[in-house]
Amino acid sequence: MQESKYYAEFIGTFMLVFLGAAAVLSQQYTANLGTVGVALAHGFALMVIVYAFGRVSGAHVNPAVTLGFWATRQMNASESARYIASQLLGAVFAGFLLLLVFPGAEATNLGVPELSLGVDFWQGALFEAALTFLLVLVVLAVSSNPNSAPFSGLAIGLTLAASILVAGDWTGGALNPARAFGPAVASGFWEGHAAYWLGPVFGALVAAFVYPLVTPVASKKRK
Fold first, then answer.
1. CATH of the domain at 148
2. pLDDT tens digits for 194-206?
């Protein structure tokens, strides 16, 4: 069924955004998780999603990842647009469910990633771009190598977790426009939001450019 991959992207993104933002909110309320706990919550969630839905849709659950597949000509524009629409819709549903689970959480911006004090817009966007570049490059690399299949979820999830460990206290380490978009819609908090689109989009495009250079065998096969 053709539509199954769009449902998979919807559910997978819902799961990532809900669990990721819930981890941030739990840390705000209890201070028990810390940056390490928040990073692991995101990383474990993404790992499970890749193993659960990877064979259905590729488990992009991230407009930046989908953009990377489009830029490397592994997806056409129409399919990419449907993927991104499914991802954003799943993220919005997650945002509104967070409102029900955490009453009053909109006062703390519902786990929306935000730039820390002292981090300006362009610094934040560049940080998000650099880390998204690494994430998308890893996704493209493992998806093109059948031998990586047993470890793909682990590699992708650990990349996200490591990125949040590095950037969590500075930008939130979203690396994913949907992760910022869903809670922002539900909470109405949009400060610095464009950085979470500009940075990941730029990082994904750079990854798409670099990918054939570091995986020449895979790029030749596609031709």
1. 1.20.1080.10
2. 999 999 999 999 9
